[in-house]
Design goal:
With 115 residues, the chain is mostly helical. It has a domain at 8-78. Helix content is 55%, strand content 0%. The chain is built from four helices and no strands. Helix 1 packs antiparallel against helix 3. The chain is elongated and about 100 Å long.
Length: 115
């Protein structure tokens, strides 16, 4: 189930990227590059209707992406992880490491040369 939801999340993200890139920006976007500047979605639906469809698709795909991310986080990544689910770094921080004793070496002043 988890793998299916992750695959669906990846699919939604790719669709979202494509829809956002297809929207017309000041430079024309990718929507103008499908079949030339005069062809594409603008001639099929009309320029105004194309902008409405793409903006609505962006809103729906973005909302679905966020909702699915929260769903995966809430149900499949529990906050109370057991010891088997914790990573190596998480378990190492909880263990107390033995302190090493540094040998105490007396510091003697250097011998002064005699004159």
């Amino acid at each position: 189930m988890y793998a299916l939801l992750v695959v669906l999340e990846i699919f939604l993200s790719v669709l979202l990227v494509v829809v956002v890139l297809m929207q017309a920006s000041k430079g024309g976007g990718l929507s103008g590059s499908f079949g030339g500047a005069g062809a594409g979605f603008g001639t099929m639906f009309g320029v105004r209707r194309t902008a409405d469809i793409l903006s609505r698709a962006t809103t729906i795909l973005g909302t679905a992406f966020i909702a699915l991310a929260f769903l995966i986080d809430l149900f499949f990544l529990p906050n109370k992880a057991t010891t088997q689910q914790k990573s190596f770094l998480q378990t190492q921080g909880q263990q107390s490491l033995p302190t090493q004793q540094v040998p105490q070496v007396p510091i003697t002043p250097p011998a002064q040369p005699q004159k």
